[in-house]
């Protein structure tokens, strides 16, 4: 059986790929010896050229096939290629290979005294047919008289095949693919290619998607390894980027219209890894459905497919952008292609099918043809671009390079001198028995640069499909991808030259969710890709000026109402605004009223009611009340180090002075009215000096507490940003909370003592009972300050200062009105009552208060 021997042969084959699908590659086969060979089937080449050394070519001259009936009851016939799916573009590649071989044979400098031969087969873009071609191409010029089973193979290399799936099926015979799967040198040690593999292409496409902010893209691939590995590579490249894949779909290998139409585009941008043969029926069905507005991103496999340049494709494919392999120049290609016609090759079925594809007529009178007859002498014109497009050959140029690479490799082997060869013991190859593995070794020395994986340096042109003057699609170069540049600088795009889908100049938008406006953040939807999100406003204190997450403003800044920028926080303190002015006015009015009372008392200081109420203590109280009213002004304005210390100390000392005076008066009143008989010595302990001593000592205690407070932990200005995060509240920190509450507690203690003593003397006789007024004033004073404590604790910054100011003013007014309003009423409005007799209640009745009145007036 020849089949096992052939597969052993396949295992030892080496390959050089020249281009991505659907462009050619070539292989360096290494044969194994066989003893018994039986030809099981034959597969005739489309073109044959004899020579000393043979190279093969396998091209997808058809891109559709007719599957045989596989019912396992009889030997199945081979797969048939459908003629109406003939590919003139691939036929041009085959003719380019023939041209290169003829040029080499005519060259006196390359392979002198030796000739190259060729065998070119049609793979029909189908793995099984490609395998038949691979096996047939190994059998030499004549399959019936093949030396394959014995000795070295006459085949040195194979240019082809067009797809990764076909390449894998035929194992290591040939590889015409850019698939990244072939970079494994352990599995494919003799595989070479003169174009970059798809790892570079998918990286370039990922950069392109990212460059134009296409975050929602669809992926369509052919049903082969090329498409599968390319899609996997692109998804890998897109990980960690803002680009999401909307869907992945596959064009079925055995095309099915119903299945193809299920690929519904949910994204405006669609990346396609497929050959033109697979794309043709797919696109025609979509054109029938009138689906437009899609921005196609083409892989190099079809980005320069001339079959799609007709004007009928423009509404659907115009604006397509993609990466094409580097173009070159073949000077004789155009003239050579025109020499191929039915007159020169009257019996060649492929040439006949070329005429049918280009002209829609058949140059033969064969009954099999469904086309009208023609002469076969028609001239090839520019509109036959699928075959005649030689202005910027890309795939054809790589076929051309592949043939020359093999020729130069063989030339180097033939020129080898004994003792300086590249093989073991510096030996050379035998010119009459060169093995393909020897060509493999020599390939590393040719001008094509291969890396350690057998790949070439990545370089792509960026192609944009634009409408030409005649309405047809033209391929315009709008940039390049140069793999020799540093990372991030490989892609160069001339954006102003690009025409997008629908002939638009603006880059199309393809997103799952529109970008969030400034001031909003992305909220990813559960179970959906990160590109699908809702936009929610940023929280207070955070901003977003792009479509990124919200960022927190610095400590002294806050977000504006739109959450687009950070603005300085509003600084608040008890300033001279509405509230500050009200407090100032009340404070000044209170001080003026106190001074007015002081004036009235001073003017009427010799009257009975002033003398009876101890004028000296009254003046002390009025003086202290004036200071109490004025100390409220210290709480208004921006806190400073000195103002913070002055606020609490001035307030505490002035109120302590005021309460001390009232306490002295209360003691005198209580002592005077509790004397049971004239001449009791109790009053001698409460004379003017003793009263001043009580006031001084009581106030001194508060002064000592304040001094200790200022020395240990004085109040200081602070910035409160915690109570209300959008504001900075300037306030005075008390420094020592213990000292603060000690100060308030001492004032409260004095007030409570006054209240108790006055309460005990509230029922003493007389028309004017001072103890009642002191009791009532202390009751108001204590009520105000008891209400102040919770209000002060719960109020921040300027409100705390306002609460304390109102407490000071309220308690001061309470003392002023309770203690002095009745007296001023008598002095100013009821002067007839301003007598000793009236104040005693009965003019001639003896009262214990008499000694006190005499004492006060003395």
UniProtKB/TrEMBL annotation:
Highest taxon above the source species: Eukaryota
Segments traversing the membrane: 579-603, 615-637, 649-673, 694-711, 738-761, 773-793, 805-828
Gene3D superfamilies (UniProt xref): 3.40.50.2300, GPCR, family 3, nine cysteines domain
CDD domains documented for this protein: 7tmC_V2R_pheromone
Keywords: Cell membrane, G-protein coupled receptor, Glycoprotein, Membrane, Receptor, Signal, Transducer, Transmembrane, Transmembrane helix
Signal peptide coordinates: 1-17
InterPro entries assigned: ANF_lig-bd_rcpt, GPCR_3, GPCR_3_9-Cys_dom, GPCR_3_9-Cys_sf, GPCR_3_C, GPCR_3_Ca_sens_rcpt-rel, GPCR_3_vmron_rcpt_2, Peripla_BP_I
Bilayer topology annotation: Multi-pass membrane protein
Full protein name: Olfactory receptor C family, v3
């Amino acid at each position: 059986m020849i089949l096992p021997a052939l597969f052993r042969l396949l295992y030892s084959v080496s390959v050089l790929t020249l281009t991505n699908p659907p462009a050619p590659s070539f292989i360096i086969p290494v044969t194994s010896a066989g003893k018994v060979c039986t030809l099981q089937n034959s597969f005739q080449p489309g073109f044959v050229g004899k020579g000393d050394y043979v190279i093969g070519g396998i091209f997808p001259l058809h891109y559709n096939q007719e599957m045989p009936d596989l019912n396992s009851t009889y030997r199945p016939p081979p797969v048939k290629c459908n003629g109406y799916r003939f590919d003139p573009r691939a036929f041009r590649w085959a003719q380019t290979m023939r041209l290169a071989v003829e040029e080499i044979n005519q060259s006196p400098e390359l392979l002198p005294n030796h000739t190259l031969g060729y065998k070119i087969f049609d793979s029909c873009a189908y793995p099984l047919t490609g395998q038949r071609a691979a096996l047939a191409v190994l059998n030499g010029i004549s399959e019936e008289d093949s030396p394959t089973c014995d000795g070295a193979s006459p085949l040195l290399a194979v240019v082809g095949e067009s797809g990764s799936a076909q390449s894998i099926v035929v194992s290591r015979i040939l590889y015409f693919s850019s698939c990244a799967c072939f970079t494994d040198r352990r599995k494919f040690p003799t595989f070479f290619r003169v174009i970059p593999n798809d790892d570079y292409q998918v990286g370039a496409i990922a950069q392109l998607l990212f460059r134009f902010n296409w975050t929602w893209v669809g992926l369509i691939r052919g049903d082969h390894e090329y498409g599968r590995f390319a899609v996997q590579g692109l998804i890998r490249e897109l990980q960690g980027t803002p680009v999401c894949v909307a869907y992945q779909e596959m064009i079925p290998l055995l095309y099915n219209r119903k299945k193809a139409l299920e690929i519904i585009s949910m994204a405006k941008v669609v990346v396609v890894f497929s050959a033109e043969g697979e794309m043709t029926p797919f696109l025609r069905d979509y054109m029938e459905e009138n689906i437009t507005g899609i921005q196609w991103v083409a892989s190099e496999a079809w980005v320069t497919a001339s079959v799609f340049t007709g004007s009928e494709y423009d509404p659907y494919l115009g604006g397509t952008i993609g990466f094409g392999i580097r173009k070159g120049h073949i000077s004789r290609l155009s003239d050579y292609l025109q020499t191929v016609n039915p007159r020169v090759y009257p019996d060649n079925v492929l040439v006949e099918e070329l005429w049918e594809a280009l002209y829609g007529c058949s140059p033969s009178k064969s009954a099999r043809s469904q086309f009208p007859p023609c002469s076969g002498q028609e001239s090839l014109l520019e509109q036959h671009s699928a075959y005649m497009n030689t202005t910027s050959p890309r795939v054809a140029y790589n076929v051309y390079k592949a043939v020359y690479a093999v020729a130069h490799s063989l030339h180097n082997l033939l020129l080898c001198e004994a003792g300086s060869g590249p093989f073991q013991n510096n030996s050379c190859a035998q010119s009459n028995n060169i093995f393909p593995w020897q060509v493999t070794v020599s390939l590393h020395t040719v001008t094509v640069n291969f890396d350690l994986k057998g790949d070439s340096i990545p370089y792509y042109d960026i192609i944009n499909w634009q409408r030409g003057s005649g309405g047809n699609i033209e391929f315009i170069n709008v940039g390049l991808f140069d793999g020799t540049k540093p990372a991030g600088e490989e892609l160069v795009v001339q954006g102003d030259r690009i025409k997008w889908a629908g002939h638009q100049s603006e880059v199309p938008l393809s997103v799952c969710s529109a970008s969030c406006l400034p001031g909003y953040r992305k909220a990813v939807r559960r179970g959906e890709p990160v590109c699908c999100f809702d936009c929610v406003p940023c929280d207070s204190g955070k901003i977003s000026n792009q479509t990124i997450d919200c960022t927190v403003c610095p400590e002294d800044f806050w977000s504006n109402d739109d959450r687009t920028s950070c603005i300085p926080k509003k600084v608040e303190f008890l300033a001279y605004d509405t509230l500050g002015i009200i407090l100032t006015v009340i404070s000044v009015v209170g001080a003026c009223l106190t001074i007015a009372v002081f004036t009235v008392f001073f003017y009427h200081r010799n009257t009975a009611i002033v003398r009876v109420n101890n004028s000296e203590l009254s003046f002390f109280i009025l003086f202290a009340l004036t200071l109490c009213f004025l100390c409220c002004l210290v709480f208004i304005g921006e806190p400073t180090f000195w103002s913070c210390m002055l606020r609490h100390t001035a307030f505490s000392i002035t109120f302590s002075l005021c309460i001390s005076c009232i306490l002295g008066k209360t003691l005198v009143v209580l002592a005077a009215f509790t004397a049971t008989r004239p001449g009791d010595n109790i009053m001698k302990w409460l004379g003017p000096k003793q009263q001043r001593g009580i006031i001084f000592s009581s106030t001194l205690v508060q002064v000592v507490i304040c001094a200790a407070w200022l020395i240990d932990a004085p109040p200081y200005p602070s910035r409160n940003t915690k109570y209300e995060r959008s504001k900075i509240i300037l306030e005075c920190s008390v420094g020592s909370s213990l000292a603060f509450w000690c100060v308030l507690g001492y004032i409260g203690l004095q007030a409570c003592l006054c209240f108790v003593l006055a309460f005990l003397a509230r029922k003493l006789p007389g028309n004017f009972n001072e103890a009642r007024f002191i009791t009532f004033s202390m009751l108001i004073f204590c009520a105000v300050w008891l209400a102040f404590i919770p209000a002060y604790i719960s109020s921040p910054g300027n409100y705390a200062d306002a609460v304390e100011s109102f407490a000071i003013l309220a308690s001061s007014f309470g003392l002023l009105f309770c203690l002095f309003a009745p007296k001023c009423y008598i002095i100013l409005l009821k002067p007839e009552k301003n007598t000793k007799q009236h104040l005693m209640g009965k003019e001639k009745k003896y009262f214990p208060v008499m000694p006190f009145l005499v004492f006060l007036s003395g």
